[in-house]
Write a structure and sequence with these properties.
8 helices; seven-stranded mixed sheet; binds S-adenosylmethionine; 7 strands; S-adenosyl-L-methionine; SAM-dependent_MTases_sf; tRNA processing; alpha/beta; 218 residues
Length: 218
Protein backbone atom coordinates (compact mmCIF):
# COMPACT_ATOMS: atom_id res chain seq x y z
CA UNK A 1 0.00 0.00 0.00
CA UNK A 2 1.39 3.44 -0.93
CA UNK A 3 1.05 6.05 1.78
CA UNK A 4 0.28 9.51 0.40
CA UNK A 5 1.16 12.47 2.58
CA UNK A 6 -1.79 14.85 2.86
CA UNK A 7 -0.90 18.31 4.09
CA UNK A 8 -3.01 19.61 6.95
CA UNK A 9 -3.42 23.03 5.35
CA UNK A 10 -2.61 24.54 2.00
CA UNK A 11 -2.05 28.27 1.51
CA UNK A 12 -4.40 29.23 -1.35
CA UNK A 13 -2.45 32.47 -1.91
CA UNK A 14 0.85 30.74 -2.67
CA UNK A 15 2.18 31.07 -6.21
CA UNK A 16 1.58 27.45 -7.17
CA UNK A 17 -2.20 27.78 -6.71
CA UNK A 18 -2.69 30.89 -8.84
CA UNK A 19 -3.12 29.13 -12.19
CA UNK A 20 -6.79 28.85 -13.17
CA UNK A 21 -8.02 25.27 -13.58
CA UNK A 22 -9.89 24.59 -16.84
CA UNK A 23 -13.40 23.12 -16.87
CA UNK A 24 -13.59 19.35 -17.26
CA UNK A 25 -15.51 17.83 -20.19
CA UNK A 26 -18.89 17.80 -18.46
CA UNK A 27 -20.31 15.06 -20.67
CA UNK A 28 -17.44 12.82 -19.57
CA UNK A 29 -17.70 13.46 -15.83
CA UNK A 30 -21.52 13.31 -15.60
CA UNK A 31 -23.80 10.82 -17.31
CA UNK A 32 -26.58 13.45 -17.48
CA UNK A 33 -24.77 16.82 -17.68
CA UNK A 34 -28.01 18.84 -17.82
CA UNK A 35 -29.21 17.81 -14.35
CA UNK A 36 -29.09 20.59 -11.71
CA UNK A 37 -25.59 21.02 -10.27
CA UNK A 38 -24.69 21.41 -6.58
CA UNK A 39 -21.11 22.50 -5.85
CA UNK A 40 -19.45 21.81 -2.48
CA UNK A 41 -16.54 24.20 -1.90
CA UNK A 42 -13.61 22.78 0.06
CA UNK A 43 -15.09 19.28 0.12
CA UNK A 44 -12.03 17.51 1.68
CA UNK A 45 -12.60 13.71 1.46
CA UNK A 46 -16.03 14.23 -0.06
CA UNK A 47 -18.10 12.26 2.47
CA UNK A 48 -20.95 14.77 2.22
CA UNK A 49 -21.19 14.56 -1.57
CA UNK A 50 -20.67 10.79 -1.70
CA UNK A 51 -23.84 10.47 0.40
CA UNK A 52 -25.77 13.25 -1.37
CA UNK A 53 -25.06 11.79 -4.83
CA UNK A 54 -26.41 8.40 -3.78
CA UNK A 55 -29.53 9.92 -2.22
CA UNK A 56 -30.33 12.30 -5.10
CA UNK A 57 -29.62 10.69 -8.48
CA UNK A 58 -31.44 13.46 -10.39
CA UNK A 59 -28.84 16.03 -9.26
CA UNK A 60 -25.17 16.32 -10.25
CA UNK A 61 -22.57 17.07 -7.58
CA UNK A 62 -19.15 18.68 -7.94
CA UNK A 63 -16.64 18.74 -5.08
CA UNK A 64 -13.91 21.40 -5.33
CA UNK A 65 -10.81 20.90 -3.21
CA UNK A 66 -7.28 22.34 -3.12
CA UNK A 67 -5.56 19.20 -1.69
CA UNK A 68 -5.03 16.91 -4.66
CA UNK A 69 -4.54 13.60 -2.79
CA UNK A 70 -8.00 14.01 -1.24
CA UNK A 71 -9.50 14.64 -4.67
CA UNK A 72 -7.84 11.55 -6.13
CA UNK A 73 -9.08 9.37 -3.25
CA UNK A 74 -12.61 10.79 -3.49
CA UNK A 75 -12.78 10.17 -7.26
CA UNK A 76 -11.59 6.60 -6.68
CA UNK A 77 -14.36 6.06 -4.12
CA UNK A 78 -16.87 7.58 -6.54
CA UNK A 79 -15.74 5.11 -9.26
CA UNK A 80 -15.93 2.16 -6.86
CA UNK A 81 -19.52 3.12 -5.99
CA UNK A 82 -20.37 3.48 -9.69
CA UNK A 83 -21.69 7.04 -9.21
CA UNK A 84 -22.20 8.88 -12.50
CA UNK A 85 -23.61 12.09 -10.97
CA UNK A 86 -20.55 13.00 -8.87
CA UNK A 87 -17.09 14.36 -9.65
CA UNK A 88 -14.27 15.86 -7.59
CA UNK A 89 -11.97 18.53 -8.99
CA UNK A 90 -8.56 19.67 -7.76
CA UNK A 91 -8.57 23.47 -7.85
CA UNK A 92 -8.26 26.68 -5.89
CA UNK A 93 -11.83 28.00 -5.84
CA UNK A 94 -10.54 31.54 -5.26
CA UNK A 95 -8.82 31.55 -8.64
CA UNK A 96 -10.83 29.04 -10.66
CA UNK A 97 -14.59 29.43 -10.21
CA UNK A 98 -14.97 31.46 -13.41
CA UNK A 99 -12.75 29.19 -15.52
CA UNK A 100 -14.57 26.03 -14.39
CA UNK A 101 -18.21 27.12 -14.23
CA UNK A 102 -20.16 29.03 -16.87
CA UNK A 103 -22.48 31.85 -15.79
CA UNK A 104 -25.66 30.39 -14.32
CA UNK A 105 -24.26 26.84 -14.36
CA UNK A 106 -25.01 25.94 -10.77
CA UNK A 107 -28.26 25.52 -8.87
CA UNK A 108 -26.72 25.55 -5.40
CA UNK A 109 -23.48 25.81 -3.45
CA UNK A 110 -22.28 24.84 0.02
CA UNK A 111 -19.29 26.15 1.98
CA UNK A 112 -18.96 23.93 5.05
CA UNK A 113 -16.42 24.39 7.83
CA UNK A 114 -13.95 26.41 5.75
CA UNK A 115 -10.38 26.61 7.08
CA UNK A 116 -10.56 29.25 9.85
CA UNK A 117 -7.01 30.72 9.48
CA UNK A 118 -7.14 32.20 12.99
CA UNK A 119 -4.11 34.49 12.81
CA UNK A 120 -5.11 37.96 11.68
CA UNK A 121 -2.41 38.10 9.00
CA UNK A 122 -3.67 34.80 7.53
CA UNK A 123 -7.35 35.72 7.38
CA UNK A 124 -7.09 36.79 3.74
CA UNK A 125 -6.63 33.07 2.99
CA UNK A 126 -10.23 32.36 4.02
CA UNK A 127 -12.37 31.17 1.13
CA UNK A 128 -15.36 33.51 1.50
CA UNK A 129 -13.98 36.83 0.27
CA UNK A 130 -16.10 39.54 -1.44
CA UNK A 131 -14.55 38.74 -4.84
CA UNK A 132 -15.34 35.05 -4.37
CA UNK A 133 -18.99 35.94 -3.73
CA UNK A 134 -19.11 37.99 -6.95
CA UNK A 135 -17.78 35.02 -8.89
CA UNK A 136 -20.08 32.58 -7.14
CA UNK A 137 -23.05 34.84 -7.86
CA UNK A 138 -22.18 34.83 -11.57
CA UNK A 139 -22.10 31.02 -11.58
CA UNK A 140 -25.35 30.61 -9.63
CA UNK A 141 -28.74 30.50 -11.30
CA UNK A 142 -31.17 33.31 -10.51
CA UNK A 143 -33.07 31.09 -8.08
CA UNK A 144 -30.03 29.26 -6.66
CA UNK A 145 -29.07 28.71 -3.03
CA UNK A 146 -25.99 29.08 -0.84
CA UNK A 147 -25.63 27.20 2.46
CA UNK A 148 -22.73 27.91 4.84
CA UNK A 149 -21.77 26.43 8.19
CA UNK A 150 -18.83 26.54 10.61
CA UNK A 151 -17.90 25.48 14.12
CA UNK A 152 -16.02 28.77 14.59
CA UNK A 153 -18.43 31.58 15.48
CA UNK A 154 -16.15 34.36 14.19
CA UNK A 155 -15.76 32.59 10.83
CA UNK A 156 -19.50 31.96 10.53
CA UNK A 157 -20.23 35.61 11.41
CA UNK A 158 -17.70 36.87 8.87
CA UNK A 159 -19.17 34.67 6.10
CA UNK A 160 -22.71 35.77 6.91
CA UNK A 161 -21.78 39.47 7.09
CA UNK A 162 -20.10 39.27 3.70
CA UNK A 163 -22.98 37.35 2.10
CA UNK A 164 -25.55 39.74 3.67
CA UNK A 165 -23.60 42.65 2.17
CA UNK A 166 -23.79 41.16 -1.33
CA UNK A 167 -26.72 42.48 -3.39
CA UNK A 168 -27.71 39.08 -4.84
CA UNK A 169 -28.02 36.98 -1.70
CA UNK A 170 -30.85 37.10 0.87
CA UNK A 171 -31.16 35.05 4.04
CA UNK A 172 -34.01 32.59 4.04
CA UNK A 173 -36.76 33.36 6.52
CA UNK A 174 -35.68 30.42 8.74
CA UNK A 175 -32.06 31.70 8.79
CA UNK A 176 -32.60 35.00 10.60
CA UNK A 177 -30.85 33.33 13.54
CA UNK A 178 -28.52 30.29 13.26
CA UNK A 179 -30.22 27.23 11.81
CA UNK A 180 -30.45 24.49 14.45
CA UNK A 181 -29.93 21.60 12.00
CA UNK A 182 -28.34 20.91 8.67
CA UNK A 183 -31.13 21.13 6.04
CA UNK A 184 -29.48 18.41 3.91
CA UNK A 185 -29.52 15.94 6.80
CA UNK A 186 -26.14 14.63 5.59
CA UNK A 187 -23.13 15.45 7.75
CA UNK A 188 -19.70 16.53 6.52
CA UNK A 189 -16.58 15.02 8.12
CA UNK A 190 -15.99 18.12 10.21
CA UNK A 191 -19.63 18.43 11.20
CA UNK A 192 -19.66 14.86 12.55
CA UNK A 193 -16.53 15.47 14.68
CA UNK A 194 -17.91 18.76 16.01
CA UNK A 195 -21.29 17.31 16.97
CA UNK A 196 -19.68 14.19 18.49
CA UNK A 197 -17.71 16.55 20.75
CA UNK A 198 -20.97 18.26 21.78
CA UNK A 199 -19.87 21.57 20.25
CA UNK A 200 -22.17 24.05 18.47
CA UNK A 201 -22.40 24.57 14.71
CA UNK A 202 -23.37 27.92 13.18
CA UNK A 203 -25.39 27.55 9.97
CA UNK A 204 -27.08 29.91 7.55
CA UNK A 205 -28.98 29.44 4.30
CA UNK A 206 -29.33 32.06 1.53
CA UNK A 207 -31.36 32.44 -1.62
CA UNK A 208 -29.62 33.84 -4.67
CA UNK A 209 -31.46 36.12 -7.01
CA UNK A 210 -30.66 38.39 -9.95
CA UNK A 211 -29.30 37.93 -13.43
CA UNK A 212 -25.70 36.94 -14.01
CA UNK A 213 -25.04 40.27 -15.72
CA UNK A 214 -26.23 42.19 -12.66
CA UNK A 215 -24.00 40.04 -10.47
CA UNK A 216 -20.87 41.51 -12.02
CA UNK A 217 -20.25 44.49 -9.77
CA UNK A 218 -16.70 45.05 -11.00
C1 LIG B 1 -11.75 22.38 7.46
S1 LIG B 1 -11.88 21.55 5.94
C2 LIG B 1 -13.61 21.14 5.87
C3 LIG B 1 -13.89 20.04 4.90
C4 LIG B 1 -15.36 19.68 4.71
N1 LIG B 1 -16.08 20.75 4.03
C5 LIG B 1 -16.01 19.35 6.01
O1 LIG B 1 -16.91 20.10 6.42
O2 LIG B 1 -15.65 18.35 6.62
C6 LIG B 1 -11.75 22.83 4.71
C7 LIG B 1 -11.38 22.29 3.35
O3 LIG B 1 -11.35 23.34 2.39
C8 LIG B 1 -10.23 23.16 1.53
N2 LIG B 1 -9.87 24.47 0.97
C9 LIG B 1 -9.38 25.53 1.65
N3 LIG B 1 -9.17 26.58 0.82
C10 LIG B 1 -9.54 26.16 -0.42
C11 LIG B 1 -9.55 26.77 -1.70
N4 LIG B 1 -9.14 28.04 -1.86
N5 LIG B 1 -9.98 26.05 -2.77
C12 LIG B 1 -10.41 24.78 -2.60
N6 LIG B 1 -10.43 24.14 -1.42
C13 LIG B 1 -10.00 24.82 -0.34
C14 LIG B 1 -9.17 22.59 2.47
O4 LIG B 1 -8.12 21.94 1.80
C15 LIG B 1 -10.01 21.65 3.35
O5 LIG B 1 -10.08 20.36 2.81
Amino acid sequence: MTLVRVRQHVNPLSQRYQVATPAPAWDRVFQHPLQPLHVDIGCAKGHFLLAMAQQNPTWNYLGMEIRQPLVDQANLKCQQLGLTNLHFLFCNVNTSLASILAPGAIAGATVQFPDPWFKRRHQKRRVVQPQFLDQLSRCLQGDGFLFVQSDVLAVAQEMVERIDAHPHFTRRADSQSWLPTNPFQVMTERERVTLDQGKPVYRCWFDHQGSQEMSDRS
